[in-house]
Amino acid sequence: xxxxxxxxxxxxxxxxxxxxxxxxxxxxxxxxxxxxxxxxxxxxxxxxxxxxxxxxxxxxxxxxxxxxxxxxxxxxxxxxxxxxxxxxxxxxxxxxxxxxxxxxxxxxxxxxxxxxxxxxxxxxxxxxxxxxxxxxxxxxxxxxxxxxxxxxxxxxxxxxxxxxxxxxxxxxxxxxxxxxxxxxxxxxxxxxxxxxxxxxxxxxxxxxxxxxxxxxxxxxxxxxxxxxxxxxxxxxxxxxxxxxxxxxxxxxxxxxxxxxxxxxxxxxxxxxxxxxxxxxxxxxxxxxxxxxxxxxxxxxxxxxxxxx
Length: 308
Fold this sequence. Notes:
308 residues, alpha/beta, GMP Synthetase, Chain A, domain 3, Rossmann fold, six-stranded mixed beta sheet, four-stranded mixed beta sheet, 9 helices, elongated
């Protein structure tokens, strides 16, 4: 967090019984500046992860009203898609279809890092795995590869709760891949749901479980709340007085704040300046250091001739 400078005061603030029509105001302090690069991250409760062409977009189109582009080739989805799921109980949640993650995504292969960023805020991951065998993929190897990429990108993301989704039952050629995934699920203590995003088989059971799981998972804070900045009056110890040859140099945070609010060319503002340096104890410290009439006293880049 970059704190802004304390605000200035209009001339009405300096109206007193002896100065009923003040002709000077006080500038505000300078704030801190910083160049930042902002990243847009999707806010979703559930993220769909998995290799390209495992059926994530088809699944999203079936459980929500979203209309992602669906085609039978890899990287059909090139931007994340969002959809809202409404349960039979009337509650709802947001699900995000993350474009296919591939090996090396955590190091930026393909558009991996851009995709991984979008699931940082999700509370639950549905890991969609193709068990059809059509493309000759090994579901256990796919599971390990994707989770390794999550781990390389963020330990926190890798520890997020996952539900395994064995997809494409309608075109499954060999049950051996499914059995391997079932063994893996037991080993990793993960829930496994068998579905077909095309026919809708098993989807109702899966979505009911997702709804129940989200109720159990705490919502993550979207921002990290930093300690509040508290402004106080200038601390009497926030300045130093040193002698540099024939000059007396007054420095410190209190001086920087004070000089940032003074109009050197205005007589009334200078009267205010003299009052404040007495209140802060600067005048007393200068006298202790041996300042005399006619000596030069330097406040930052401004030089003054000392007199009382």
